[in-house]
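Supplementary Note 3. Input sequence used for the single-chain structure prediction.
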Amino acid sequence: MRHLMSPLDLSVEELDQLMDLANDIEKNPAKYAHACDGKRLATLFYEPSTRTRLSFEAAMMNLGGTVLGFSSADSSSASKGESVSDTIRVVSCFADICAMRHPKEGAPMVASMVSSIPVINAGDGGHQHPTQTLTDLLTIRSLKGRMDHLTIGLCGDLKFGRTVHSLINALVRYTGIKFILISPEELRVPDYIRDDVLRANQVPFEEVIKLEDALPSLDLLYMTRVQKERFFNEEDYVRMKDFYILDKAKMELAGPDMLVLHPLPRVNEIAVEVDQDPRAAYFKQVQYGVYARMALILTLLGIEVK
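The predicted structure, written as discrete structure tokens, is reproduced below.
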């Protein structure tokens, strides 16, 4: 039995196999429509979510399975003081696989240590978000046709952004990747990412403050929102939230083939006018997220569809 806590739990070869499976699901949905008949997915979301939770639920239902779970800690026995370990032991009696989101870093890992079913980390604090990373990688490979030799701009909240941390961890394993890290000083990527991941893997990167300076050289721009829920005080959040806004004028500085990705939800960091630009791929990214999670569920449950 395997769990997924981090993108690094899958080798590059396993990632490629999973993405091949996701692409086959995209092309042949009917072939997989009953692959999980009789199987149940538990979605244990201690933190609010729209895309990730509904994407998991859609993925399981597309495979013919069913879903149970809760969408906030308030609607679970966590509100009575039940531990994550006890919750997963109970849920293991009801479901075949579990997706867990939790505000505390490491909570899904704690669950996986006592669980008798596969546990998928659906986001833990500011730490990791591996299924968003699978979604991002699948989107990049499907739309760019490759995973190597790319210059990738990561913009916005690089300090608390778990999607950014997971994506960097995954992409450093591919050849010819260069990062341009675009953030204000207060939201720079953490030292452990800079030193233990980028420098340790000899991956070239530069840190800039102005988005305009980076746009002309990018193959891919990954925008993120400034996350109000990660800030300790309102004043800091208000000061930072409008630091970067990608609009039509800035898009004119970018190359004709640059893709814009965003893990969503968007607040105001991408102007609505950008949605009409053919380079805006963030809503396609949502659809790829369903295919990626379908492939992951099948892989962790050990189900092969001929």
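The radius of gyration is 19 Å. Residues 3 and 170 are 17 Å apart (CA to CA).
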